[in-house]
Amino acid sequence: MLFYLLDLIGVAVFAVSGVLAASRSGLDLLGGFALAALTAIGGGTLRDVLLNRHPIFWIRDARYLLVILIAAALTMIYIVFLPPPGNSLLMADALGLALFAISGAQIAESAGLSPLIVVLMGAMTGTAGGMLRDVMSARVPLIFTQDLYATAAIAGIVVYLLLQKLSTPRSLAVGVGVVVILGVRVMAVVFGMHLPRLHALH
């Protein structure tokens, strides 16, 4: 139940970020709903295809699509009356990244895959939808322009797996993993944190 709830919240948050991106790009209502859906289910769809999980999660359970429609519609109504804060897209994206990365990792973990594949699948689940959103709204993907993006997802998933190895209750491990990803992303946005850059020696 906890996993399912996190998945639904992640879908809702990424749908919100899709509508915010559509609004900034001047898309119409249909474009807003399409971008919300693409952002919310893009990463999970790619994960399910690679893991050969059929039917794909949103086809198996139409409640995901219902959550997307509700979240997108409410966001559209909100931005008609109140302009969203300047960093709202980054904050919504950070929360969606945290929730989806951990839920994606759990799915790969339940399939009995190696820790490395679990980390990769979780990071991909958290980042792919946002990449598709940015490409379709004619923006350079955040993963290429924002420091500590995929790195934040990887860090949180590794912490989650380590806590699991230490026999920490799953709910606590999930919570800590989400907080680590969200915390690293928010600090990176607020303080401009980044990994060391590669420079050629001359």
Write a structural description.
By secondary structure, this protein is mostly helical. It has one domain. The protein contains 9 helices and no strands. It has helices at residues 2-24, 29-50, 57-60, 63-81, 88-110, 115-136, 142-145, 150-165, 170-191. Helix 1 crosses helix 2 and helix 6 (115-136) packs antiparallel against helix 8 (150-165).
What is the CA-CA span between the terminal residues? Answer: 56 Å
Number of domains: 1
Poorly predicted runs are none
Radius of gyration: 17 Å
List the helices and strands and how they pair.
Blueprint: H1 2-24, H2 29-50, H3 57-60, H4 63-81, H5 88-110, H6 115-136, H7 142-145, H8 150-165, H9 170-191
Helix pairs in contact: 1-2, 1-4, 1-5, 1-6, 2-4, 2-6, 5-6, 5-8, 5-9, 6-8, 8-9
Short description:
The protein is 77% helix and 0% strand.
Q: What key attributes describe this structure?
A:
mainly alpha; 0% strand; 202 residues
